[in-house]
Amino acid sequence: MNQNLGKASVKLQRPVYILNSGSIVGTKEGQGPLGLLFDMVGSDDMFGCESWEEAESSLQKSAVQLALEKAKVKAEDVKFIFAGDLLGQSIATSFGISTYQIPLLGVYGACSTCGESLTVGVMTIAGGFADRVVCVTSSHFASAEKEFRFPLEYGNQRPLSATWTVTGGGAFVLGNEEALSAYGEKPRARIMGMTVGKIVDYGLKDSMNMGACMAPAAASTLEQHFVDFGSQPEDYDKIITGDLGKVGQKVLIDLMKEKGYDISEQHMDCGIEIYDGEVQDTHAGGSGCGCSAVTLSAYILKQLEEGNWKKVLFMPTGALLSKTSFNEGKSVPGIAHALVLET
Question: How far apart are alpha carbons 24 and 39 in whole angstroms?
């Protein structure tokens, strides 16, 4: 039987496997330090579409197709798909993956959507409600700027605390032991537990400093995870946040030291890894739903497969604002969900 731990965690007695995954990114991401690891890099950020939003839908559709092909799974063999994005009414999802005709449960956790979709997918399989599910999310720099900030034509200046929304989509095929047996190959990783985050709001209102807004939520989830699992930072090869960037990383490390945990040796952030801060003009780093998703698929799982890491804590972070809440002067709450990934 699976075990509920503490206030917010679940420890699995039987693992749920990431059978395979797919990642597709834009040109800027392809020019970064992880560029050669992605399954596909677009020749331009329109991906043959007529609008930024259609391009993001294309990212999700292509990522799912890649993941299904690599996992040797047909769409009709997938019980559920858990998907979401940053756009209003999750239109990148609804227009992107409708052709697969897989029963859909839409999720929204802002930039933590990869973690949320994987968590719900794992619980569904662990609970015996499915043998295979697909989890997918995406973001696009241009569509996100139009949704949350300014039209690109406006040419506004971005402060150094701002992050660059990743253009990318990542999809994951999860399965139980029976699905793994049918797959017949080594899975990319196994998921052994999760800690579900809660909404944390420190009253920050600067939407151009997402890292600082999300770091308190990451600290809350991480502390709860350590308490629930009785673990310490040194129990993990890496503790990986989604898109705090350089500013948020410093805030998180300081907050955790105040709580009695030093994660400076283990911490890594997808938003820092995906771009070359010395060459690419991304200021504090990367962000967006696609940031943690494509980094997980292309880089983190590769490190686990090759045995460079044995056990990591993967914790995407999200800022729960909308253009309405921002324009009404509301603060920017954050959330983070953590998953234990092992070889």
Answer: 6
What tokens were used for 223? 């502390």
pTM of the model as a whole: 0.94
Share of the chain above pLDDT 90, in %: 81
pLDDT tens figures, 228-251:
999 999 999 999 999 999 999 999
The alpha carbon of 235 is separated from its chain's Cα centroid by a whole number of angstroms, namely 22
Same domain, 145 and 207: no
* Domain enclosing residue 313, as ranges: 190-342
**Helix ranges (DSSP H) in 173-327:** 177-183, 210-229, 245-258, 270-273, 289-295, 301-305, 323-327
Q: pLDDT by residue (tens digit) across 51-67?
A: 989 999 999 999 999 99
CA separation, residue 48 to residues 35, 41, 43, 57, 146 (Å): 20, 13, 9, 11, 19
Domain boundary, last residue among 183, 202, 220: 183
Contact call for residues 24 and 68 (beta carbons, < 8 A): no
